[in-house]
Write a structure and sequence with these properties.
The protein contains 5 helices and 18 strands. With 285 residues, the chain is α+β, with helices and mostly antiparallel strands. The protein has a single domain, classed as 4-Layer Sandwich (Double-stranded beta-helix). The mean pLDDT is 93.
Length: 285
């Protein structure tokens, strides 16, 4: 039976992030509550649901509130051993090792700011991450508003970039720009530098430090200069919400208008997360 609840929404920073209280995602909320959660997500880009206790089936059901569940794009032959314990379309992110091998993907260290699946023709609409084990320190996730970055961009820089396309490249498993630690499997795609959100109609900066490699039809020196300015601007502290994880946190973010990054954490401390994505509905424009 579906239940109704009064949604409590608490903004977490000026530009991005809100905590949703009073919602138990194990129990199916009614359509009105789901619609209110969805609107809060569009308004705040990142939602935090604390103190959740979810089974994998619950996790997939919650993902469906925001659209069609996305597939795991990593080639199956590169699945770590822990993937045998999770349902299809869930990604395990973990540094826990068995017989010297991580049971999940993206096990250790920091990750630069990025959009999930920007290297696909139709990138993911959203990502949901659920925490099961967390280190005592570090491993925070930082979220930056692409809206705020676009709205405050130097008009001269914006004019030089308006209408341009950028190429994005990613080796599955890489955690730093241009590193060789990922698999030989990769994907790449070109998208507009500024993306119009198909639901809010707002524009956002749509490049990132980890995956964006060049501006198309632009000399390399000019491309490097402009992208460097964009990366630095988009990662300004005033545009960022930094989330310190607690066990049972479930976070949802909008990949169309935000980027995220991960801080370093001790390799000796266990970290275990489950991740789903929501399938995109259109090519970026």
């Amino acid at each position: 039976m579906a239940y109704s609840t009064r949604l409590e929404v608490f903004p977490l920073s000026k530009h991005i992030g809100a905590e949703i209280r009073g919602v138990d995602l194990r129990t199916k909320p009614n359509a009105e509550t789901v619609a209110a959660i969805y609107q809060a997500w569009l308004d705040h880009l990142v939602l935090v649901f604390p103190d959740q206790e979810l089974e994998q089936e619950d996790f997939l059901r919650v993902t469906e509130y925001f659209g069609e569940v996305g597939q795991v794009h990593r080639p199956p032959k590169y699945f770590p051993p822990g993937f045998s314990r999770i349902l299809p379309n869930i990604l395990m992110i973990s540094n826990i090792r068995e017989n010297g091998e991580p049971i999940g993907v993206l096990p250790d260290g920091e990750m630069m700011f990025h959009h999930d699946m920007i290297h696909a023709e139709v990138p993911s609409k959203a990502t949901i991450l659920y925490s099961l084990e967390i280190p005592k320190t570090g491993g925070d996730t930082l979220f930056a508003s692409g809206y705020a970055a676009y709205d405050t961009l130097d008009p001269k820089v914006r004019a030089r970039l308006e209408g341009k396309q950028a190429k994005h490249h990613y080796n599955y498993g890489s955690q730093a720009r241009g590193d060789g630690k990922g698999t030989e499997a990769f994907a790449e795609m070109a998208h507009p530098v500024f993306r119009t959100h198909e639901e809010t109609k707002r524009k956002a900066v749509y490049v990132n430090r980890l995956m964006t490699v060049e501006l198309l039809d632009t000399p390399k020196a000019e491309s490097d200069e402009l992208l460097g300015k964009l990366f630095d601007h988009a990662e300004k502290p005033e545009f960022i919400y930094a989330h310190t994880w607690r066990v049972g946190d479930l976070l949802l973010w909008d990949n169309r208008c935000s980027t995220h990054a991960r801080t370093d954490f001790p390799a000796t401390e266990r970290r275990l997360m489950l991740r789903t994505t929501v399938k995109g509905t259109t090519r970026p424009y």
